[in-house]
Design a protein that fits this description.
The protein has about 200 residues and is α+β, with helices and mostly antiparallel strands. It is about 25% helix and about 30% strand. The protein has five helices and nine strands. The strands form three sheets. It has a five-stranded mixed beta barrel. The chain has a two-stranded antiparallel ribbon with strand order 6-7. The protein has a two-stranded antiparallel ribbon with strand order 8-9. A hairpin with a 4-residue loop joins strand 2 and strand 3.
Length: about 200
């Protein structure tokens, strides 16, 4: 039912998607957004959720930062990916919609917390690993730094005015083919049918 809601409405109505992963997240000790004020400043935590936003703004230092916001059904989790981790994390950040991230708690106000990300994984992949090989296999995967997968865009884009867009920006190359088949011929028929 949730899958149909996501396909038709673009949102989950009857049950939050992350709730399907609660057992795994609890076993790993993942901190929920509502509890992020509890760990001390500088504590290392695991967080997870549905990716709801990414931004890659230019900053004064010339470095690029990826900001990502996750929704874990209890509230938003703000993640910051600095250049030092982008080589191994950017492809996962931009290529996955369910994320698990390890990071350091950073207090930004009396009731505001941000997470400086150290690493991240596709939660759907970890869930599949958990179901086939168990919790120890997931913990082993989390103990290893994720592989260096290189930039998402492949190369930096430089505009005529000299502004360079990070290769990790969420702006990709133009799509030259449709993302899915819109029409197909059914077996035994001569015309297209809706996919």
């Amino acid at each position: 039912m949730v899958e149909a809601e996501l396909e038709i409405l673009g949102m989950d109505i009857s049950r939050h998607v992350i709730s399907f992963h609660d057992e795994l997240l609890d076993a790993l000790g993942v901190i929920r957004a509502k509890d992020l004020l509890r760990p001390r400043n500088g504590a290392e935590v695991l967080v997870a959720g549905v990716k709801v936003a990414t931004q890659t703004p230019a900053i004064r230092s010339g470095q690029r930062i990826i900001f990502a916001t996750l929704d874990d059904s209890t509230g938003p989790v703000d993640l910051t990916f600095f250049e030092s981790v982008q080589g191994r994390c950017a492809a996962t950040v931009f290529g996955s919609w369910l994320l698990l991230a390890r990071g350091v708690v950073r207090r930004t106000g009396a009731r505001a917390v941000s997470i400086r990300a150290l690493d991240c994984w596709n939660l759907a992949d970890l869930d599949a690993l958990w179901r086939t090989r168990g919790l120890d296999a997931v913990r082993a995967a989390l103990a290893r730094p994720s592989a260096d997968r290189g930039p998402v865009g492949g190369r930096a884009i430089e505009y005529a005015n000299g502004f360079r867009l990070s290769p990790y920006a969420d702006i990709g190359p133009a799509i030259t083919t449709p993302p899915r088949l819109l029409w197909h011929a059914s077996p035994g028929s001569s015309g297209p049918t809706a996919a």
